[in-house]
Amino acid sequence: MTREDILLRKIENGDRQALDGLITDYYPDIFRYCLWHTRDRAAAEDATQETFLKAVRFLDGYRHQGHFRAWLYKIAANVCRDGWRKADEEPLPENLTYDEAGFERAESDADFICMVRGLPEEARELVLLRFAQDLTLREIAHVTGLPVRTVQSRLRSALKKIKKQLLKGEICHEP
After folding, report:
1. What share of the chain has pLDDT > 70, as a percent?
2. CA 147, CA 39: separation in Å to the nearest integer?
3. 95-110: burial string, b at 16+ Cβ within 10 Å, e else
4. RNA polymerase sigma factor 70 region 4 type domain spans which residues (predicted)?
5. pLDDT digits over 151-169, tens only?
6. 36 and 124 in contact (C-beta within 8 Å)?
7. pLDDT: is 63 or 111 the higher one?
8. Which pLDDT band holds residue 117 (cuts at 50, 70, 90)?
9. How many whole angstroms separate alpha carbon 5 and alpha carbon 55?
10. What is the SS3 string spanning 69-135?
């Protein structure tokens, strides 16, 4: 039994501290995900808070079958999408700057942000979930509502497009 399973079982039995533990475990990952989809740190913090508020509100309706992480990402994706609609923002702004250690690596990794920005929105989301958030294909399928094979083929297509851009030297380089 995983830590997640234990915490969810305790939550079902009314243990509020188990809920705090679950939020503590997933907060950094959801926050980093929200940073990708918002213009600034404050908006990402708001989106992360809203994600966890919705998760707590709808936790009674969640049936644990090993997909809790994917369920959280699905909520975060919807919260961020709603934020774009309200603020009329682009999902990946031009000037991304982050202080998080994971993003330092992503920025230095062959202009990851520029490669992803050049993809269509649906492909961008798949690449982001797979490589920036390290979700499995099955978890991505759960988040997006697509079949696993579709996720796999679209991800492969997006990676081919990035490779083609790299070979042609079409990837932008930030100053």
Report:
1. 79
2. 31
3. ebebeeeebeebbeee
4. 112-162
5. 999 999 999 988 887 777 7
6. no
7. 63
8. confident
9. 16
10. HHHHHHHHHHHHHHHHHHHCCCCCCCCCCCCCHHHHHHHHCCCHHHHHHCCCHHHHHHHHHHHHCCC
